[in-house]
Write a structure and sequence with these properties.
This protein has about 260 residues and is of the alpha+beta class. The chain is built from eight helices and 13 strands.
Length: about 260
């Protein structure tokens, strides 16, 4: 869950702007400062700036050098959500990219593999992205811990994907959906006295593609979870998680599902 004492990049973005197309990067995404002492963090916040670009909702096909990011760390999501879909023949799965996600559009997604995958992006809502180009990478050189934290972001994506692969092994769609919602709640949700609230612009079809289920099965499973008092649905894309773990996981160690190998 989000640290209530530290705003997420989306909430911190307004105060970090230095014009319509640039931000103080480490003010916009303060967790990149983890490990720095106060003096170093203050200096880095003041000196490191990055260009910001907005991507509108809809299909998005980023070029290898999108926004001039190649040569640096890539593109960092500051606000908004993007669905990355990987497909093989008529099968596919979806990865959700949101605040703090790091993308490198020039990396091969499997198009040239023996059994080639297709990859596509759909911007789910207006999304703002920091361009971590070569200039930004050079400006971070006095603070190598920030580069380490960016590397951690890249590794976290692989950990999240491993967790998603694991949850699809549960036979019941209800269990898969509940575990996914808690996983997303941990990444993007906010703790409240009533439970964990999470706002995600995900249709039932997209949720299905994240847990290897069809849309009607997701709709039915969500209804059953609401009947059990485990999930409360508000307007589209907003949920409150207020129950415990699924029955299949009651005897499992709490850290077992998404623990690193």
């Amino acid at each position: 869950m989000r640290d209530s004492d530290r705003p997420s990049p989306g909430r911190a973005l307004a105060g970090a702007r230095i014009g319509p197309l640039a931000v103080r990067l480490l003010e916009a995404d303060p967790s990149l400062l983890d490990g720095l002492d106060e003096e170093a963090a203050a200096e880095a916040r003041a000196k490191v700036t990055a260009a910001v670009r907005t991507v509108k909702p809809g299909e998005w096909a980023p070029k290898a050098d999108e926004f001039g990011s190649r040569g640096g760390f890539g593109l960092l999501v500051l606000r908004g959500f993007i669905a990355r879909r990987v497909a093989l023949v008529d099968r596919g799965c979806v990865e959700l990219l949101g605040e703090e996600s790091l993308l490198q559009p020039w990396v091969d997604d499997g198009e040239f593999a023996v059994m080639p995958f297709g990859c596509s992006f759909t911007v789910l809502e207006r999304t703002e992205i920091a361009v971590l180009d070569e200039t930004v990478a050079a400006s971070l050189s006095p603070w190598p811990l920030v580069a380490r934290n960016l590397m951690t972001r890249a590794l976290e994506r692989s950990r999240h994907l491993a967790g998603h692969l694991t949850l699809t092994q549960f036979p019941r769609v209800e269990t898969r959906l509940l575990v996914l919602l808690w996983h997303l709640g941990e990444r993007f949700g906010r703790m409240t006295p009533e439970g964990v609230k999470v706002r995600l612009p995900l249709s039932h079809r997209l949720l299905g593609e994240m847990i290897a289920a069809r849309r009607p099965s997701v709709t039915t499973a969500l209804g059953r979870l609401e009947e059990q008092g485990l999930v409360v649905s508000y307007k589209r894309g907003e949920w409150r998680l207020c129950g415990g773990r699924p029955p299949e996981m009651l005897d499992a160690p709490r850290e077992s599902l998404f623990a690193p190998a």
